[in-house]
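Input record (Table S2, row 204):
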Amino acid sequence: MFFSSKNTIRGIIAATVCACAMTISAFAADIAAIAPVGASAAEGTVLSAQQVDTAAQAQAQAEAERAAAAQAAAEAARRTLLNYQPVYGGMVRFSTAKSASEVITANGRALGSYKLSFYCPCEQCSGHWGGRTSSGARATEGRTIAVDPRKIPIGSRVFIEGFGDFIAEDVGGAIKGNRIDIYVGGHSRAQQLGIQYANVYIMN
Ligand SMILES: [Zn+2]
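Output record (zinc ion complex):
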């Protein structure tokens, strides 16, 4: 019993030493891989302080290059966004093709899930406002949404998952907090679209 537990301890020590040796050799291989040609350490030799410095510098440079590449990719994505076509409008309908792309999730400001309702220019939906919006813009299906301006500033470009791009250009008495009212051209369509929930992003 005593003997066997001693053996177990020896085994653990041996395994630990072995694991350390593997870690060190993996580290040496890493350094050899990133060190400039000619500076690679021959097997079994100890790296000089200068070689370690050179390796660290090479690693720092590689990291800086990766960071610069990531920044360039983010900038390219942002430029793609800035070259967005204006939101002209069109028929509002749900489509899974209008899910948030990587560009949108990376560059938009995610507002979380919003309750969506739909309104039209009829008296029941818009009272005396008709097709006029609070911002002065003419209400246009596929472009106009009513928002709570404390959540989404008027004029914001807003991506609504499943529905696409809109402009916040109207408000509504019942549209407070995480709610958006999406303008459509006719009352029956507004009713058909009902109430939905979707993730929302501010894109500017
Ligand atoms: Zn209506």
